[in-house]
Amino acid sequence: MTNRPKVCVDRVLPRDFMRLQPTTRAAGRTRAVAPIGKTWANGSTLRVRFMGGTSEQKKIVRDQAGWWTQHANLTFDFDDAAPNAEIRISFDPNDGAWSYVGTDCRSIPLNDATMNLGFMDGGTTAHEFGHAIGLAHEHQNPAGGIQWNEEVVIRELGGPPNLWDEATARHNVLRKYAADQVNGTKFDPDSIMLYFFPADWTLNGVGTKANEVLSDLDKAFAAGAKMYPKTGPTVDQPTELVVNAARRTSASIGTFGEADLFAFNVKKAGRHVIDTRGPTDIVMKLFGPNSPTALIAEDDDSGVASNARIAANLVEGRYFAQVRHYNRASGRGNYTVAVARA
Ligand SMILES: [Zn+2]
Fold first, then answer.
1. What is the DSSP string of 84-129?
2. How far is the CA of 279 from the centre of ligand 1 (A)?
3. Which of 29, 125, 181, 311 has the lowest CB atom count within 10 Å?
4. Residues lying with their CB under 5 A of ligand 1, a single-atom ion
């Protein structure tokens, strides 16, 4: 009898399925629209609230969450008194192990968990925290080396403990992410974001092993430019913008995957427009007020050509804008950014 693996369900919000559809851009190019990424602003403090759980379970969570913050420029603040904690963990043994991915957690109603730890074997908790900081499943890496035997996979996942129908098995295991959605460059067989899959689930008889600790690539990636570099700009030291400044602020994406961080203070509530200009294909996220984790909006191409533009009614307070290149694998370039009150 096959020892069927427990597979994490990564929860992806419905709008992400919509983004996978090809779209025609102003310039006539066609591509998938899934560019934004789900990373938090570099240097963020993410509050974690437990919704139940024993002291033993909570200890495992604190320990394994800390595996990431040894490398990533993030802080976890365990605060059960924070009703609006970014990460909210339940321990329902009948609901498997899953987490929403990165900033998607902010879209979940505050009474609901953003992560469930129905089992905590090995490095499961660290795996789920990988999702919570914005990582996808390694077995869905488009550069992945797994040659699935689809018939076997669908049959096996249809049995306990997963009991998935074919569509669910395809979504959670077989479907590979659009290249845009995945940050990694090469398949990492040691990643904690990979699950154990038996050899007979593949056509070439090469399965995967369960990884219970962060791999060297996991650590390097979490600390790298595309995620949370300790040397990169952080929410504590953003580049200041002034609303209605006389001149636009010049900036550049100098390293592949790098994020630039800007902040500005709204002193008079009203409709504001923040946009980028220049030849560089920019994507932007806006957070606030007074919180670098409260996502207000994200945009890819609403600005001139492939620039980003966000228009929003903003109350008084401090706001943060995270800017990336659309192409996180090879995109670099100069741009300007400005914020104006309409
Ligand atoms: Zn997972």
1. T-SEEEE--TTS-EEEE-GGGGGGS-TTS-SEEES---TTHHHHHH
2. 37
3. 29
4. 8, 10
